[in-house]
Amino acid sequence: MDALLAAARKGWENAVAGYSGFRVGAGLRAVVNGAPAIFSGCNIENATYGLTICAERVALFKALSEGAREFTDMIIYTTASEVTPPCGACRQLLWEFCGDIPVTARTAGGAEKTWRMAELLPHAFDRNSLA
Ligand code: THU
Hints:
Helix content is 32%, strand content 27%.
């Protein structure tokens, strides 16, 4: 199995989703000091609900905290019947830190769809907007 999908599935297994019961895993591929690296993420929920963080942002923050600044692609994995694209907050951060990478959503049943970030977040507000 592709290493990126394996990381997303590992994230799914580790999901802390006791409130919604909706587990999400993400795998993010990066280049760190010239070498390829893969980071996994899972959604993490808590009793306030609002402080929940998505699998995509956990993978991204893990990567950034390990020094990754160059990203190539992401896979999001669920057991839902339809593929689940990233939420709006994740789109903003993925766009800002990863740029126009391909993002693939995949289900346990094998459904799969890939988008470019520019498709998922057209007309983005980003650092260019502040120039
Ligand atoms: N969730 C993600 O992890 N990623 C998304 O892009 C959408 C939603 C999580 C947040 C929450 O724990 C659960 O899915 C239900 O919204």
